[in-house]
Amino acid sequence: MDIDWLLALGSNMYFFLLVYPVLGAGLKYIDDAFDEQTFDKTKALILAPVIGILGALSMLINPISATILLAVVIGVFLKGKVDNRAHLFAFFTFFIIFVLSGIVQVIYLPLIFLSAAAILDEVGNDVIDYNMTYHRRKKFRYKFSLYFFGRRYLMKVALLFVVLMGVFPLYFLIAFILFDEAYIVVSLYSESIKETAKNKSEKA
């Protein structure tokens, strides 16, 4: 593969602004295909290696992207969120490319900082899910926490701090926000499919 072409791609902000939302939407599609059964599992299995390749490519061509996405992977992996066949397929594809390339560069201090934020985001999200599942009759005390961890905002805040410190360019924060927003859009679509199926079942 032409190294000059890869270097040019790695410095092109539009590539990351396009790829990050694709990664976010793809990951949520895979999630809900297996966890909620709202999407086709066969399509999710086909999509999984594509997501793995795109994620690995995004990391190979830019150390900042590698730092951000590796922090996400660390947070998800350590919290046991790689929990179905498609996730494993995507992770395996990503890991093989990541290891075989041998040229992935990361920025270590931001990686530690962002990984900690990603892990805390996942912990907070689990707490929110628990309260919503088992304490629905109780009004959740802190609506801000419900929104903040429900949308996994801690890593965004951490990334904003890194940007304000001048370590990362602003467009990576925008790309990461697009990643999360695409994830949320697919989640809302999945919920609408589930609600429609429920209403049809009740009417039958």
Rg, Å, rounded: 18 Å
Total domain modules: 1
Which percent bin holds the helix content? over 70%
What general outline do the C-alpha atoms trace?
Answer: globular
Order of helices and strands: HHHHHHHHH
- Counting DSSP H or I runs of 4 or more residues, the number of helices is 9
Low-confidence stretches: none
Question: What's the number of extended β-strand segments?
Answer: 0
Average residue-wise pLDDT: 82
Structural class assignment: mainly alpha
Strand-residue fraction?
Answer: under 5%
* Main beta sheet: none
Distance, first to last CA: 56 Å
Task: Write up what this structure looks like.
- This protein has 204 residues and is mainly alpha-helical.
- The protein is built from 9 helices and no strands.
- The chain has one domain (3-191).
- Helices cover 80% and strands 0% of the residues.
- It is globular, with a radius of gyration of 18 Å.
- The model has no long low-confidence stretch (mean pLDDT 82).
